[in-house]
Amino acid sequence: MIIPPDPEKDPNIFSPSSSTPSLVPAPSEHSYFGTASWDGESLPPYEGRRRSRISFAADQSSDTRHTREGDVFSDENATHLQEMRERNPRPGLGVVIPTTVINPAYQQSPGSSLGSVTPTATGPNASLPSFHSTHPAHSYAESSIVPASNTAPVASTSKLWESPSSQPSGPTRRILCLSPAASRALYKWWKKWRTWVLVLLVVILVGVALMIGLLLGMHSSKHDTGVAIPPWEDNNSNDDGKKSAIWQQGGSPNLTYVESRDGPSFTDGNLTNCNQFTSYNHSSAFSSLFTPFTITTISTTRFTFPLQANGSAPSNFFFNGRGLGSSGTITFLGSEGDEGLQQEAGEGVITVDVIVRYAGPQALDDMMRVCEMARNDGGVGVGIYSPRRTDGKVSNPLFINPAHVPTSHILIRVPPSVYAGAAPATYFPHLEYDFDQMSVRFGDLEGVADMGLLDISNDCGGLDAAYVSLKCGNVLSTGNDVKGRWNVSEELYMNISDGSISADVILYDPSDTPDNSTTLQDRDYAFYRRGISSSDKVITTRFFSSSGYLDIRYLHHPTTVSLSSVIATLRGPIFLRLHPNYIGPFSAKTLWGELRIPTPSPVPNYDPMHENRCRSLALGIINVPTNSSFAQYGLNQSMLGCSTDTVTGVAYWATVDQKDGHQRVNTLTVEKAQASVAETGNEVVVMGAGGDVEVIIDGS
């Protein structure tokens, strides 16, 4: 078998100077081509070579039969192929050449195309032959005649076996059933933003993984068993002297002060005169404050703050304690304090002593700062700043050996002449405590100190006040109890978390001269308090606890003072004892507990008008004023009418008629009793949960 040369590799096969010219047969011999002529470039390679050889042989021979022999497009071969299709009607490959109609204006004579090496141009809409599978049922179907446009024909350079266009001839493939334009727009958008979309997907997957891990960690931590013994005790007492305390597991227990981490904030103030420690004198009067341990290093430092010209303390006097080493006690020495401590204080100044106790191996200068402080607003005070965590990254004080942590005792004293009664009580316009963990103690300050505004914020530590006289007080404490006696002239707020409140409250009206429940010797201060008071004065008290009992007693209540009080706890009992001078509405509520409002005793000797009236109580649905504390805490007539956990009533003084040696008490209904005492403005709201509630209105 002789393999003819490949025309694709022969550069001269289609050249005009080629020895074998490419001639095409006359159009009349192939009527199915119409008037169009085709060159070898428009046919497959093997057909181009075949046509060239046949055309050249036709010119050399005079025999017509031999001219058509070997031509696959001849009439004889066409007849032969037709007979073979009739014998074997199977699908096969055929050549379907659509009929092309050329505008007569652009047609040429057959003779002009025979001698031309260049093929005749075809119309722009002429279809080229295409190879496809045919079926016998359509083997005799003729191609449809498509009229050509009137435009000039353009020579086609595409080959029959090549696609005439780079675009697919079939229907356009759509994305997500979108139109082609929308699909292209979506593709362009995806090509532009696919990187960011992938990044976003990765971030979402990472976030989901972190969330799942966090939830699993929280779930597993709930099942972790806690420490069964106090963390400062040894794990095992029978380990042959080998101590393995919980806090010794891990890194170093040392405390190292870092100014950038442990120092005061901008609002706290600036530190001056830091760590001026002196050795402790065991024979000093400080020994009455505490009993030192056997192996303990005690250091002291003292700060003095001059009194103002009017004899009062600095306008803003504050104490700050931050960090693990700020634990201890702060004591305001009262009239019952040790006489030696009273006499050691300086005259004309407020004396503050800081006593630091430490049993560890470190130096105090490396562990903490005990300094005098000053603020931009003119406030002065004392600050104790220590590390917020150990060198081993432990920040929970329960996991630290107390012997390795310094503790402090802060002592505040007024001039000795005040303790001796030779000078009036020292007035503190604003006294502020802000501690992380410190117990607060106030001695009996009656005749010693009067507070204008007292602010106490203690994250961990209790409060014990023997007697404190103040205009406004705010106490915020966590994790311990609060108890004391408070002489209040305007307002007192206490909010305790996980602790109980035991308070004896004295309501004081400086403008009421017969009210001598407290003796204030500071004339300027007494004049100031009288100037801001009025006959219809309202004193506000609030006592809140998240978990703990509340025991509130009102020891004194002038008739010129109206009381607005709210007492609430989320868990624990409540005991409230109102002064007999309280007349007005009240409400008592409890969940998971019992409510007791006993019938009051007559107590006619407590009648402020000395008319031998009888203390009385009317229970029922009260009228709830719009702006009252009852309305603020959700009480109204419709709710009270169907309530299963709230009881309301009115406390009042009932007149007594004497007739025939018998006493007859003129009781009132709730509506009449509330109307008779409406001008007083008194209101008391009690809300309990998880415990009993008891309200007594006769002062017993």
Description:
It contains 13 helices and 29 strands. Among the domains are: 7-138, no CATH class; 271-433, no CATH class. It is an alpha/beta fold. Strand 26 and strand 27 (662-665) form a beta hairpin. Mean pLDDT is 77; it is low at 18-25, 27-38, 56-76, 90-170, 224-248 and 516-535. It is flat, with a radius of gyration of 54 Å. Residues 107-133 have a biased composition (Polar residues).
Label the overall shape: flat
Structural class: alpha/beta
Beta fraction: 25-35%
Question: Rg from C-alpha positions?
Answer: 54 Å
**Helical proportion?**
10-25%
User: Which consecutive residue ranges, at least 5 long each, have pLDDT under 50?
Assistant: 18-25, 27-38, 56-76, 90-170, 224-248, 516-535
Largest sheet: 25 strands, mixed
Mean pLDDT: 77
| Separate helix tally | 13
Count of distinct strands: 29
Distance between the termini: 134 Å
Short description:
The strands form three sheets. The chain has a 25-stranded mixed beta sheet that branches.
Topology overview:
Layout: H1 45-60, H2 64-68, H3 75-87, E1 92-96, H4 110-114, E2 130-134, H5 180-222, H6 259-262, E3 270-272, E4 278-279, E5 297-306, E6 317-322, E7 328-332, H7 339-344, E8 349-358, H8 364-367, E9 369-374, E10 380-385, E11 407-413, H9 416-419, E12 426-435, E13 439-444, E14 449-458, E15 463-478, E16 482-497, E17 501-507, H10 523-531, E18 537-545, E19 550-556, E20 561-569, E21 574-577, E22 584-591, E23 595-596, E24 614-619, H11 629-632, H12 637-641, E25 646-654, E26 656-659, E27 662-665, H13 670-676, E28 683-689, E29 693-696
Parallel strand pairs: 6-10, 6-12, 7-11, 7-13, 12-14, 13-15, 14-15, 15-16, 16-17, 16-18, 17-19, 18-20, 19-21, 20-28, 21-29, 22-28, 23-29
Antiparallel strand pairs: 1-2, 3-9, 4-5, 5-8, 8-11, 9-10, 22-25, 24-25, 26-27
Keywords: Membrane, Transmembrane, Transmembrane helix
Region (Disordered): 1-75, 107-135, 227-252
Transmembrane segments: 196-218
